[in-house]
């Protein structure tokens, strides 16, 4: 089984189209899957929508009442996953579900043990109307994170791993939203790879990226470098 973990907050409008897109991508490929929405108590009708979706799609929703944050929501969902393979993607429809079968295939064949959906490899792309500022806001953090992850899009939030390869949750302490970087840096992955994707702009809802989250990324990056460089660590 494949478990698709989707962190959500105020994403009610996206749940139906995302569930449909996932089904259209995985069902023709004969892939058994579940979708786990991990919601930070949105109170926007997400629970009721998921109850309706369950009539047609293998979805469930986990509502967190006492914790907030995209990265910790992802870890919560990964721990609850039933599948041998875990895919993490955003709820805002920016990540193409059509890439999931290829990501899963690489893990199943053991060609890769960590697969990113990437904007910056051959065949990947971003929305045509991104401003120079937004492009720099994506590329500069990627360069800052490159020593921690040898891939071209280390800031991607769209990734897949085998559940058995997930690092011990006790050593995971992400700040903010870049959980893929946290998992890669603290895991033991030897064959990472990237699948090209087109990164689309969200159609519904509002972006959660703020100055606070950008500052959290700097703090998170500092923690990860300290983890990698700490005395006595065996890679």
Characterization of the model:
- The chain has helices spanning 12-26, 46-53, 70-80, 100-108, 132-145, 179-186, 211-229, and strands spanning 2-8, 33-39, 59-63, 85-88, 114-118, 125-126, 159-162, 192-196, 198-199.
- The protein has a 7-stranded mixed beta sheet with strand order 3-2-1-4-7-5-8. Strands 6-9 form a two-stranded parallel sheet.
- It is α/β, with parallel strands linked by helices.
- The protein has one domain: Spore Coat Polysaccharide Biosynthesis Protein SpsA, Chain A, CATH 3.90.550.10.
- Helix 1 (12-26) runs parallel beside helix 2 (46-53).
The number of E-state strands comes to: 9
Uncertain spans, ≥5 residues at pLDDT below 50? none
Order of helices and strands: EHEHEHEHEEHEHEEH
Please give the alpha-carbon distance between the first and last residues: 30 Å
CATH superfamily: Spore Coat Polysaccharide Biosynthesis Protein SpsA, Chain A
Oligomer: single chain
CATH architecture: Alpha-Beta Complex
Number of helices: 7
Round the mean pLDDT to the nearest integer and report it: 87
Radius of gyration: 17 Å
Output the CATH class name. Answer: Alpha Beta
User: Structural class of the secondary structure composition?
Assistant: alpha/beta
Strand arrangement across the biggest beta sheet: 3-2-1-4-7-5-8
Number of domains: 1
């Amino acid at each position: 089984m494949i478990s698709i973990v989707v962190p959500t907050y105020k994403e009610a409008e996206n749940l139906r189209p995302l569930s449909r897109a996932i089904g259209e991508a995985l069902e023709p490929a004969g892939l058994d899957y579940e979708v786990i929405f991990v919601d930070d108590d949105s109170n926007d009708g997400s629970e009721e929508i998921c109850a309706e979706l369950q009539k047609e799609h293998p979805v469930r929703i986990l509502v967190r009442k006492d914790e907030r944050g995209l990265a910790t929501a992802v870890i919560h969902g990964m721990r609850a996953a039933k599948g041998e393979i875990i895919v993490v993607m955003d709820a805002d429809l920016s990540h193409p579900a059509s890439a999931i079968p290829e990501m899963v295939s690489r893990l199943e064949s053991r060609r890769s043990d960590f697969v990113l959906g990437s904007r910056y490899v051959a065949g990947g792309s971003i929305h045509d109307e991104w401003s120079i500022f937004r492009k720099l806001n994506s590329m500069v953090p990627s360069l800052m994170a490159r020593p921690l992850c040898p891939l071209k899009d280390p800031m991607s939030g769209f990734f897949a791993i085998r559940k058995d390869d997930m690092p011990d949750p006790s050593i995971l302490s992400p700040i903010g939203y870049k959980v893929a970087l946290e998992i890669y840096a603290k895991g033991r992955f030897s064959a990472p790879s990237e699948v090209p994707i087109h990164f689309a702009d969200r159609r519904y809802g509002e972006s959660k990226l703020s100055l606070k989250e950008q500052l959290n990324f700097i703090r998170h990056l500092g923690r990860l470098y300290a983890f990698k460089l700490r005395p006595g660590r065996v890679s």
